[in-house]
Amino acid sequence: MKLYTSYFANAKALAKANVMMIGIALYPPRWYQGPSLKEVAPTYSILKMTSSDEEYTRRYKAEILARMNITDFINQVQRLANGRDVALCCYEKPEEFCHRQLLAEHLRANGIQIEEFVAKEPVHELSLFDT
């Protein structure tokens, strides 16, 4: 299993590459019917009550990542993947600040290989309003 990060609007490219999406957002899009691991999603408080990227980062690391059992998390991802490659997905595009970058950094620091999914061919991105 290869582990990626990506974003929901990249669903068509992920499907074309046979990469399974696993949501890591607190509130995935309505059209998304796949599995979610909300234990690594930012809390409502982190999302709505932080005033800067620095505060968001500090709180996400202290409130989510510090409590995370990496072995249990990876085992859960592997069970959901059932042998397929996986992309941990949230909303933001790769160049935008978001928690999946913090999660990926934390996983890499603990010996887990993970990278941002890049489509080999351009594929039309889904709108968050596509059904």
Walk me through this protein's architecture:
- The N and C termini lie far apart (28 Å).
- This protein has one domain.
- The chain has 131 residues and is α/β, with parallel strands linked by helices.
- The longest helix is centred in the middle third of the chain and has 12 residues, at 70-81.
- It has helices spanning 11-16, 44-48, 53-63, 70-81, 99-109; strands at residues 3-7, 19-23, 85-90, 115-116.
- A 4-stranded parallel beta sheet has the order 2-3-1-4.
Helix content: 25-40%
Which regions have little confidence, pLDDT < 50, spanning 5+ residues? Answer: none
Oligomeric description of these chains? single chain
Strand content: 5-15%
Q: Please, what is the average pLDDT?
A: 93
| DSSP, total strands | 4
Number of domains: 1
- N-to-C CA distance: 28 Å
Number of DSSP helical runs: 5
Rg is 14 Å
Spatial arrangement of strands, main beta sheet: 2-3-1-4
Shape: globular
Written as H for each helix and E for each strand, in order along the chain, the element string is EHEHHHEHE
Largest sheet: number of strands, sense, barrel closure: 4 strands, parallel
* Structural class label: alpha/beta
Defining traits:
131 residues, alpha/beta, 5 helices
How is the secondary structure organized here?
Layout: E1 3-7, H1 11-16, E2 19-23, H2 44-48, H3 53-63, H4 70-81, E3 85-90, H5 99-109, E4 115-116
Parallel strand pairs: 1-3, 1-4, 2-3
